[in-house]
Write a structure and sequence with these properties.
By secondary structure, the chain is α/β, with parallel strands linked by helices. It folds into 2 domains: 4-156 and 232-264, Rossmann fold (3-Layer(aba) Sandwich), CATH 3.40.50; 166-227, 5' to 3' exonuclease, C-terminal subdomain (DNA polymerase, domain 1), CATH 1.10.150. Strands 8-7-6-1-4-5-11 form a 7-stranded mixed sheet, with helices on both faces. A two-stranded antiparallel ribbon has the order 2-3. The protein has a two-stranded antiparallel sheet with strand order 9-10. The chain contains 14 helices and 11 strands. It is elongated and about 65 Å long.
């Protein structure tokens, strides 16, 4: 069985652009830092033995979640949009496509939901490259989080970090909130208290904490609609024909020479069929 990675495209782009070299890289008047940086990350995991790769992009940005909470992910969306031009996005998608990297999106939902679809469908081990807490709900016997700093996180790792099983992550975030996604939880209730309530019920909390939970049931219900991922969807593929000659031409033209080993190796990784 192959070792499959699906990358959280928004996080991967943000992480790449946080590195000054890639953020500012311009060659022949073209910004190529995003494409170069992302392929460097993929090359790292090719060298570690991973074989099948896909990227989930945000394109629809979950209009249904914005209808529930208009401030949902507003700060994150604007930060990413303002730092990367449409031209650089397009070049990056084309560059990855020429190497054979599968790319998926949904016109009305988020990359998180796309990754949720693949997590639900996979029949073999799948690794999700992300740091987002909401994606921890997808961890199972077949699915692990591939955290760039913490390494692999399985179901026991989720429990160790948050005190709840993966399936309870949406409820924990609904109660305590998720600052990264601009979801406001119950003021005065953090992850530790939320996990205690989820595992042991109201009697395990102080009288004040019980009151906060009971009085804010509508907040919890609303937030659950935001934190629970939709996995019963059908993602769309951004289709490119794999073309290593064009990939190599772009490497040479835009001086991304550290990637040349990807086209010079005798045995190319079999990345053209990202199995659902």
């Amino acid at each position: 069985m192959s070792k499959k990675i699906i990358f959280d495209g928004g996080y991967l782009a943000h992480r790449t652009k946080s590195i000054p070299f890639f953020r500012n890289l311009v060659v022949k008047e073209k910004r190529v830092g995003l494409a170069f940086g992302i392929m460097n990350t993929i090359k790292k995991y090719i060298n570690e033995g991973y074989e099948d790769f896909a990227v989930a992009w945000d394109k629809g940005f979950a209009s249904h979640r914005r209808e529930i909470l208009d401030s949902y992910k507003s700060s994150r969306k604007e930060a990413i949009k303002s730092s990367i031009s449409a031209e650089e996005w397009g070049f990056t998608e084309t560059f990855l496509g020429f190497f054979g990297i599968k790319q998926y999106y949904h016109p009305e939902l988020e990359a998180d939901d796309v990754m949720g679809y693949f997590a639900k469908q996979t029949q073999e081990s799948l690794y999700i490259f992300t740091v987002d807490k909401d994606l921890y709900q997808l961890v199972s016997d077949k699915v692990s989080i591939l955290h760039p700093e913490k390494g692999l996180i399985d179901d026991s790792g989720v429990v160790a970090e948050f005190g709840v099983a993966p399936k309870e992550i949406p409820k924990m975030l609904a109660i305590a909130g998720d600052r990264v996604d601009d979801i406001k939880g119950i003021e005065g209730i953090g992850y530790k208290t939320a996990s205690k309530y989820i595992n042991k019920g109201l009697p395990s909390l102080t009288e004040r904490q019980q009151g906060l939970i009971v009085d804010n049931g509508d907040v919890i219900d609303r937030n659950l609609k935001l934190t629970k991922l939709k996995t019963d969807i059908e993602p769309l593929e951004i289709k490119y024909n794999k073309n290593l000659d064009e990939f190599e031409r772009l490497i040479n033209e835009y001086e991304m020479l550290s990637l040349k080993e990807l086209v010079e190796d005798d045995e190319q990784p079999s990345i053209t069929d990202f199995v659902r």
